[in-house]
């Protein structure tokens, strides 16, 4: 018997957040995910972090001569966008590597986020 797909009215609503991350050293996607996830857990705790349902959709390195730059698209549950932006803005270092994170914007779809904030 084939499982039925949930109708759109019963699915969790999600939002996409665009970020620009600047670093002194190269970072892997796993390191970026750990940095973001740890900042959310440290600020709000594990229960609230599980409600936020944070996930990295896309990470793209950008050519920059002065520093390493990444365009990141995060997915979170609707209603928690401000909490994610607050947690992300508390990041300033990973070990000896200095990091700066700027939240660019929020959107309901990846296509609109790329179009509006040019994260391609």
Q: If you had to describe this structure to a student in words, what would you say it looks like?
A:
With 120 residues, the chain is α+β, with helices and mostly antiparallel strands. It has 4 helices and 5 strands; from the N terminus they run βααββαββα. The chain has helices at 29-44, 46-52, 81-89, 110-117, and strands at 14-23, 55-62, 68-77, 93-94, 97-107. Strands 2-3-1-5-4 form a 5-stranded antiparallel β-sheet. The termini are far apart.
Could you give a quick summary of the protein structure above?
It is globular and about 55 Å long. The protein has 4 helices and 5 strands.
CATH architecture: 2-Layer Sandwich
* Multimeric organization: single chain
How much strand? 25-35%
Class by helix and strand content? alpha+beta
Distance between the termini: 41 Å
| Contiguous helical run count | 4
How many β-strands, per DSSP?
5
Largest sheet: 5 strands, antiparallel
C-alpha geometry: globular
Strand order of the largest sheet: 2-3-1-5-4
Question: Top keywords for this entry?
Answer:
4 helices; 5-stranded antiparallel sheet; Alpha-Beta Plaits; 120 residues; alpha+beta
Furnish the topology, listing elements before pairings.
Blueprint: E1 14-23, H1 29-44, H2 46-52, E2 55-62, E3 68-77, H3 81-89, E4 93-94, E5 97-107, H4 110-117
Antiparallel strand pairs: 1-3, 1-5, 2-3, 4-5
Helix pairs in contact: 1-2, 1-3
